[in-house]
Amino acid sequence: SAYDAGDHESYMHKEMLEQPVTAQAVLRGRLDERFGTAHLGGLDMDARDLRAVRRVKILGCGSAYYVGQMGAALIEELARIPADAEAASEFRYRDPVIEPDTLYVAVSQSGETIDTLLAVQEVRRKGGRCVGLVNVVGSAIARECDGGIYLHAGPEVAVASTKALTNMFLGFALLALQLGRVRDLSIADGKRLVAGLEKLPGQIEEILAGEDDLVAVAKSLAEARSLFFIGRVRGFPVAREGAQKFKEISYRHAEAYQTSELKHGPLALIDPEVPTVALVPRDELTERNIGALHEIDARQGPLVVITHAEVDLGEIGARRIDVPRNEPELDPILLTIPLQLLAYHAAQHLGHDIDKPRNLAKSVTVE
Ligand code: G6P
């Protein structure tokens, strides 16, 4: 067929390894080094329209919802516009207030997810503007939206999204950059982020090249009946996505928690049988995050820490996975890649059908 798994043992594996190339495709022709901004013609919004946006509401399901939370954080940080993401499957049931100066963003790989499509229709029926971040060209959601950003990830077959998810993040980064630059984001910051985005595909490749080193740790996680994924602020949606992937293909119970909330409940569950995968990038929260790792370590909770080489974990007994550093705003996507590999190799070790996990469909097109 035109698109098959080739020499790979599964589509998911092939799609993970394609990411350095597919990530370039979503950026191509959209970055402006000179003015430190992005050009997104498909949005069909001029600088005035973009400046009129007072709030951003992102709608998606599953992994698209979690990457929507990463996107909301990017928009709020770079453009200083209040932004949040909501599960599209809940949205229309609460008779949401649709505001004319809110920009609604529907995010979907397939463009056919019924819950996301119906959320878009709810927005448009009530007079709101909805743009799409969609992979499949000409899909139902793409057609229903007022404009959008195509993700150019190519066909994605495995139920667990990898390359499309990465391009969703990059699509949000482009949107955040453009929204920021028509407002108060400085040209210097714009250029810093453009340079960061240009570096990303190569850094994703670097992480994927370390795949073999992650197999043993993935196998040890696969042995646990239950595990936690923790992160804070930028890292929390990453933890949610990591737990989701792990659940979907390994069928192990994995729960995402804010690192800061651990002491308010789940710490009671930590013992030598319950591992924690912690996201600890080098940022303004590193020291606080390390404090939480001490709490886990003191209870003999096994720890896998996704971090940067500069971070000193001191005496903490942990298996560390270092990812390359980029601009802090762009860290989430680099932290996500090892979580894909961990979920993949855990499921592989358990002998599951990785591309078609039980009970799940690639896209859910009926209510
Ligand atoms: C299904 C899949 C998920 C996916 C979600 C949204 O539930 O199993 O992996 O994240 O749909 O799909 P979409 O095509 O809208 O991104």
Automatic annotation (TrEMBL):
Keyword Transferase assigned: yes
Catalytic activity from the UniProt record: D-fructose 6-phosphate + L-glutamine = D-glucosamine 6-phosphate + L-glutamate
Enzyme Commission numbers on file: 2.6.1.16
UniProt GO cellular component terms: cytosol
Primary location: cytoplasm
Domain annotation SIS: ranges: 46-185, 217-357
Subcellular location(s) per record: Cytoplasm
Enzyme class name: transferase
One GO molecular-function entry: glutamine-fructose-6-phosphate transaminase (isomerizing) activity
Keywords: Aminotransferase, Cytoplasm, Glutamine amidotransferase, Repeat, Transferase
Record-given protein name: Glutamine--fructose-6-phosphate aminotransferase [isomerizing]
Organism from which the protein derives: Nocardioides alpinus
Full-protein residues shown: 241 to 607 of 607
